[in-house]
Design goal:
seven-stranded antiparallel β-sheet, alpha+beta, about 20% helix, 16 strands
Length: about 325
């Protein structure tokens, strides 16, 4: 009797098998859905983290240069020796021009703009509806003179221990002693124990400087930048920079995923050192009166299909930056 009962309990019925399959399928579907949701959450978090990192990095780069726009050491602007023809194209170069105080702006529709006389930033390079900002300033690294320099003397002498490798022929240089500032092109840079920089009229309109500089003067390289939004080889919008490197213009892609840059300039209309009104570049009456800039970047995720509607996520990053050399 017991053996017959045991035999009757062997195996599963078809209904039991089907129920087990259905339950297993539901559990598997739930597990897969949890995995897919977790993976999508990770993708979104990673994409947004990179977006935020790119936005902060872009803001950091521009903040530094805007804040230092027009920096010429600690001195007031003295007589400027304009560049004659450092790139040999037969056209006088004005890359040392500080007529706007080291900062200038353009809207994409107002291009082209000269980087040098032979290199322009054109509408073909700049994404529609985005802004361009041009900045000129002295570099962060300066070298003291080691001897007197006469007003008509074409030579500046520097100590090689601190100046070696910093300067080259055709560099645009700034000299300042906290009383005056001059900008000139070097036509020759020697080597040895004492480095001599010649700034004769061969590459300048004159070898005369505005005063007799002494050992308290500092020589710095002039830096010139143009920041704009362009499209890279992969078809993605990026923050780009053109910079003057000796007589050459170098184009650099800085940060991928920056799709817009908008800048409003704070104009001081009553000479109290504070912006009274913020205007687009084309509406500024005098760039010399601009004391701050309101900068806004729009950054987007590099990956598609990360937002709820299946597209990209975008974020705006904004900051108001004081131009230090305008408020001192």
């Amino acid at each position: 009797m017991n053996r017959r009962s045991i035999n009757k309990q062997q195996g599963l019925s078809l209904i039991e098998v089907m129920i087990a399959i259905v339950i297993s399928s539901l559990l598997m579907a739930g597990t897969i859905q949890i995995f897919v949701n977790n993976k999508q959450t990770y993708r979104v978090q990673e994409a947004v983290s990179r977006l935020q990192e790119n936005g902060r990095f872009a803001m950091q780069i521009l903040t530094k240069d805007i804040r230092m726009a027009g920096f010429t050491g600690c001195g007031r602007m003295g007589t400027i020796s304009n560049i004659a023809d450092i790139d040999g194209d037969g056209i006088a170069d004005q890359t040392s021009d500080f007529s706007t105080g080291g900062i200038d702006g353009r809207e994409e529709a107002a291009l082209p703009v000269n980087i040098t006389n032979t290199v322009q930033l054109t509408t073909a390079e700049v994404n529609d509806g985005t802004d361009v900002i041009l900045i000129k300033r002295a570099s962060d690294t300066g070298v003291r003179l080691v001897g007197n320099m006469g007003v008509v003397n074409a030579n500046i002498q520097l100590d090689s221990a601190t100046a070696a490798g910093l300067f080259a022929a055709d560099d645009i240089l700034i000299i300042s002693d906290c009383e005056a500032t001059d900008i000139f092109a070097a036509n020759n840079v020697s080597s040895g124990g004492t480095i001599t920089i010649a700034h004769s009229s061969a590459v300048n309109t004159s070898n005369n400087l505005s005063k007799l500089y002494d050992t308290d003067a500092t020589v710095m390289k002039m830096e010139s930048f143009a920041y704009y939004i362009g499209t890279n080889a992969a078809g993605s919008p990026s923050l780009y920079r053109k910079r003057l490197d000796n007589v050459n213009v170098v184009t650099e892609e800085l940060i991928d995923g920056i799709e817009d840059m908008e800048i409003k300039y704070g104009e001081d209309t009553d000479a109290d050192g504070t912006a009274n009104i913020y205007r687009d570049a084309g509406a500024v009456t005098n760039m010399q009166n601009v004391v701050s800039a309101r900068l806004t970047f729009t950054a987007r995720t590099l990956e598609d299909n990360v937002s709820l509607n299946g597209g990209r996520i975008t974020r705006d990053f904004s900051s108001t930056i004081t131009i230090r050399n305008r408020v001192n």
